[in-house]
Structures are given as C-alpha cells and as structure tokens.
Design a protein that fits this description.
Layout: H1 7-21, E1 26-29, H2 44-70, E2 76-80, H3 92-112, E3 118-124, H4 137-145, H5 155-166, E4 177-180, H6 184-187
Parallel strand pairs: 1-2, 2-3, 3-4
Helix pairs in contact: 1-2, 2-3
Length: 190
C-alpha cells in the first residue's frame, strides 16, 4: 500500500509492481472519497483532502506508471470518475473533482496516444458500495427512480467495463468518459 498523493511513494509502488509482474500493461485508478457539504459548509481542509484523493492521486499514479506502460504493446490507463462529472447536486467538491478526472483523462489521452497508451474514464452511476452507505433513503430512492434500468449498479458492472477498456477490443478507444450508470444520464434529459 502507499499514500497515493505522495509522488515518491507511488513511484516506489509502480517500480515494485513492475518488478513483481515483469512489466506493466494496465493502470486502473480507483481511489475516491466523498465529503458532503456545499460552499457554505465544506472547509478548505475537506476540499483539499477530496481533491488530493480524487484527482491528485490519479495524476501522481499516471506519472509514475506511464514509463512502464510505454514498454507494453498495449498500455492502458483507466480512471474511475463518476456521472457527477456531468451534473451538480452532489456537492461542489465531489462534482468538480470528478469533472477534473474526465478532463485530465482527455488531456493525458492526447499526450500518451502517440506512445500507444490509451487513457479512458469510466463514469459510474449509483453503485452498491460503501460510499453509498451514508446516503439518505430519499437520495437513494431518487437515484433509483432516475435510473431507467431501475437497479443500482454493482462493482461487477464497473469491473466489466474495465475489462473491456483494457482489452484488445478497445485498442482504438481513447480519451472517452464512458457512463456505466444504468441510463441515469440519459434519464436526466427528460
């Protein structure tokens, strides 16, 4: 384990992973936290912590991993963002951090594409994870009602999207933000 916001620790982790695995093909950035509060409630310390984990850690990890991914015939970076990158209402810091992940993904895809590395983001909707545990029943009911498939996602749903983006079938896909949300973003159009 490592503090994912510490560049030296992440470089050491990437080096150890490369040695253990005899190379590196895929980086999945899945660190994320949620701290509730709007502009009047969220402290700067809370804002900084959320941005450090949700955004800085991805940047630090990509910096550490790309030299190893460049040696791979099919280097892949998959960043986990959120549908909240495209909508408000779930806290300005969280939404801003996830929008940052999407745009960071696009920029790094442009930079690393010529090196043969694809960089994509997955944007989950409401998924049954510990992050949902603190949500109110009203919030969860609204999320479910707004999801056309009328169920919450599972970690397996997100994992399948990761497997696809890491596969040869996705070799010509880069710079995208793929919603894996049961249609939640589609339902917002109504």
């Amino acid at each position: 384990t490592a503090n994912l916001t510490d560049r030296a620790a992440v470089r050491d982790l990437a080096k150890a992973a490369e040695a253990e695995l005899c190379g590196g093909d895929i980086l999945v950035n899945n660190a994320g936290i949620y701290i509730p509060g709007g502009i009047q409630q969220l402290t700067m310390a809370g804002w900084d912590r959320l941005m450090d984990i949700n955004l800085r850690s991805l940047y630090v990890s990509m910096q550490a991993a790309w030299p190893y991914l460049e040696q791979s015939p099919a280097g892949r970076i998959i960043n986990i963002a959120s549908v909240n990158a495209f909508r408000g209402g779930h806290g300005p810091a969280y939404s801003a951090s996830k929008a940052g992940v999407v745009n960071l993904t696009r920029d790094i895809a442009i930079e690393l594409g010529p090196k043969g590395i694809t960089v994509n983001a997955i944007c989950p909707g409401a998924v049954e994870t510990a992050m949902q545990d603190g949500a109110s029943e009203e919030t969860m009911a609204a999320e479910l009602k707004g999801t056309p498939l009328r169920r919450f996602g599972t970690p397996r749903d997100i994992g399948r999207a990761c497997v696809f983006l890491a596969s040869d079938d996705a070799a010509w896909i880069t710079g995208i933000a793929m919603p894996v949300d049961g249609g939640l973003l589609s339902g917002m159009v109504r």
